[in-house]
Design a protein that fits this description.
The structure holds 2 protein chains of 2 kinds. Chain A is mainly alpha-helical. Chain A is 82% helix and 0% strand. Chain B is of the alpha/beta class. Chain B contains 9 helices and 10 strands. The chains are: A mainly alpha, B alpha/beta. Chain B: Keywords: ATP-binding, Cell membrane, Membrane, Nucleotide-binding, Transport.
C-alpha cells in the first residue's frame, strides 16, 4: 500500500502558488483576447460581404478542427520560422489559446446574435439606426444575456486548457507541479494536489454558471 | 425632380413601384400619393402586397424598381433594386415612424428607455431633453404611469401604445402602421385605435395597413384596396367601403359586416 505524504507538498507551496498565478493570468488573457477574436469572427461570419464571411468561417473551422496541442506546438516552433517573428513561449501560448478559444466563442456569439428576433432589428432600423447601432444598442445586449452561460462554460474549458502550455515550458501550475514532483520524487501527491487546486478554482464557477442559467430561464 | 409648389405637393409619393420575392411578383407597378395630413388605409386580402408596399415606403424592403419619396427625401430605384448606402437609408427612415404588428419593443429597456432610444441614439439628443419628450409622449398615449415598467409587464394594447410613442419620439413626418391591431385581443384593439384616431385628428400623415374596416371607414380619408400586387380600387374611404365599384372589392368587403366587424370564423 502506498504511503501518502502530503506534508511534503507544503514545502512547494510558493512554487505552486506562482504556478497558479501564471495559470490565472493566462486564463484572463486568453479569455479576453479570445472574446475579442470570437466577436470579430462572429460579426465577420454574419457580414454580407462574401470574402469577409468566408475568411471568418475559415478561421473558425481551422481552429475548431485541429487539436490545441498541435496548435501550441505549431505556433511556438513553426510560426517563427515561417514569419520570421521570434516568439516567447508565453506569447505563442497566449496566441494559440486565444485563437483556439475565439473559434468556439465565435460560434456561441453568432448563435446568440441570430437567435434574436428579426423584428428587433427592423424596429431599430425603422427608428433610423445604422446597422452598427442596431447591433450595439438592440441586438447584442439581448444576445449577450443568452450567451453568458455558454461563454462561461467555454471559459472554464479554457482555464483547463492552459495546462497544455506546460509543454512549452511556460511555468504554469502544472509545469511547477512537475518541477516539484521531479524534485521531491512524490508525483502522486503533487499531481493529486494540482488536480484539487484546479477543481477548487473551477467548481464555484460551474455553480455560478448553473445559477445564471436558472435565472435566465426565469426572465425569458 | 421637378420643383412644385410645396403647398400642393403630396407628402408621400410612390411611383411605378415593383417588388418580387423569387418568382412571386408581390408589387406590380404601384402608384400612390398621400397628401400632407392625409390618412390612407391599405386594405386587401392576405398576400395582396399591402404590408410589402408599406415596408417599401420606409425601405425596410428594397423595391426592385420605381420611385419612393417621403417629404424631401426621394429615391429612384430604376431597375437596380439596389439600396442606398446605410447612412442615407438611416436618415430616411428616421423621418418615417413605423408601428409593427408584433410591437417589437426592446425587451431589455424600460418603457421610458424604449421611447428615448430613437432621440438619444439616432438624433443625438441630450438626455435632459429626450426624457421630457419621451414622458410627454407617454402621457399622450396614456401610459405615463408605466414609464419604469418593462415591456414584458404590459398588455398587448399597452405595448402597442408604447411602440407608437417610440415612433413618435423621432418626430417623423409620416407614420406607417403595419397591422397594428392584428395581434391584439379584441378587447385591447380599441385603446390602440383611439391613439391612432387622435394622431390623425392632429394632422399626422398616416398610412395604415389594417383589417379594421370600420376604423378605416371612420378615420381614413382614402382607402386603397389591393389584390395580387395591384391597386384594384382607390378613392374616398366611405365611397370605397360603402359603394365599391370593383367586383373584387365587393367580394372582399362582403366578408365583413356592414358596420365593418369581421365575420367570426
Amino acid at each position: 500500500m502506498y504511503q501518502w505524504d502530503f506534508g511534503l507538498v507544503w514545502t512547494y507551496r510558493w512554487l505552486l502558488l506562482d504556478g497558479f498565478a501564471v495559470t490565472v493570468g493566462f486564463t484572463v488573457a486568453i479569455v479576453v483576447l479570445g472574446l475579442v477574436a470570437g466577436l470579430l469572427a462572429a460579426l465577420g461570419k454574419l457580414s454580407p460581404l462574401r470574402p469577409v464571411a468566408w475568411l471568418a468561417s475559415a478561421y473558425i473551422e481551422v481552429f475548431r478542427c485541429t487539436p490545441l496541442l498541435v496548435q501550441l506546438v505549431w505556433f511556438y516552433y513553426a510560426l517563427p520560422i515561417l514569419s520570421g517573428i521570434e516568439m516567447s513561449a508565453i506569447s505563442a501560448g497566449i496566441l494559440a489559446l486565444s485563437l483556439y478559444g475565439g473559434s468556439f466563442y465565435a460560434e456561441i456569439i453568432r448563435g446568440g446574435i441570430v437567435s434574436i428576433d428579426k423584428g428587433q432589428t427592423e424596429a431599430g432600423e425603422a427608428l433610423g439606426m445604422l446597422p452598427s447601432q442596431v447591433m450595439r444598442r438592440v441586438v447584442l445586449p439581448q444576445a449577450l444575456k443568452r450567451m453568458v452561460p455558454p461563454l462561461m462554460n467555454q471559459s472554464i474549458i479554457q482555464f483547463k486548457n492552459t495546462s497544455l502550455v506546460s509543454v512549452l515550458a511556460v511555468p504554469d501550475l502544472l509545469y511547477q507541479g512537475q518541477v516539484a514532483a521531479h524534485d521531491s520524487y512524490r508525483p502522486l501527491e503533487l499531481y493529486t494536489v494540482i488536480a484539487i487546486i484546479y477543481f477548487l478554482a473551477l467548481f464555484p464557477l460551474t455553480l455560478l454558471v448553473k445559477r445564471g442559467e436558472t435565472r435566465l430561464a426565469v426572465t425569458d | 425632380m421637378a420643383i412644385e409648389s410645396t403647398m400642393t405637393e403630396p407628402k408621400i409619393e410612390v411611383a411605378a413601384l415593383r417588388k418580387r420575392f423569387g418568382d412571386l411578383e408581390v408589387l406590380k407597378d404601384i402608384n400612390l400619393t398621400v397628401e400632407a395630413g392625409g390618412v390612407v388605409a391599405l386594405i386587401g386580402p392576405s398576400g395582396s402586397g399591402k404590408s410589402t408596399l408599406l415596408r417599401c415606403m420606409n425601405l425596410l424592403v428594397a423595391p426592385d424598381g420605381g420611385r419612393v419619396r417621403v417629404g424631401a427625401d426621394s429615391f429612384d430605384f430604376g431597375n437596380s433594386g439596389q439600396l442606398p448606402p446605410a447612412k442615407t437609408l438611416a436618415r430616411f427612415r428616421a423621418n418615417t415612424g413605423m408601428v409593427f404588428q408584433h410591437f417589437n419593443l426592446f425587451p431589455h429597456m424600460s418603457v421610458l428607455a424604449n421611447v428615448m432610444e430613437g432621440p438619444l441614439t439616432v438624433r443625438r439628443m441630450p438626455k435632459a431633453q429626450a426624457e421630457p419628450l419621451a414622458r410627454s409622449l407617454l402621457v399622450k398615449v396614456g401610459l405615463a404611469d408605466k414609464a419604469d415598467a418593462y415591456p414584458n409587464k404590459l398588455s398587448g394594447g399597452q405595448k402597442q401604445r408604447v411602440a407608437i410613442a417610440r415612433a413618435l419620439a423621432m418626430e417623423p413626418e409620416v407614420m406607417l402602421f403595419d397591422e397594428a391591431t392584428s395581434a391584439l385581443d379584441p378587447e385591447l384593439v380599441g385603446e390602440v385605435l383611439q391613439v391612432m384616431r387622435a394622431l390623425a385628428a392632429e394632422g399626422m400623415t398616416m398610412v395604415i395597413v389594417t383589417h379594421e374596416i370600420a376604423f378605416a371607414r371612420e378615420v381614413a380619408d382614402r382607402v386603397v384596396f389591393m389584390r395580387d400586387g395591384v391597386v384594384v380600387e382607390e378613392g374616398p374611404a366611405r365611397a370605397v367601403i360603402d359603394t365599391p365599384r370593383e367586383e373584387a372589392t365587393r367580394a372582399f368587403l362582403s366578408h365583413f359586416h356592414r358596420r365593418g366587424e369581421a365575420v367570426p370564423g
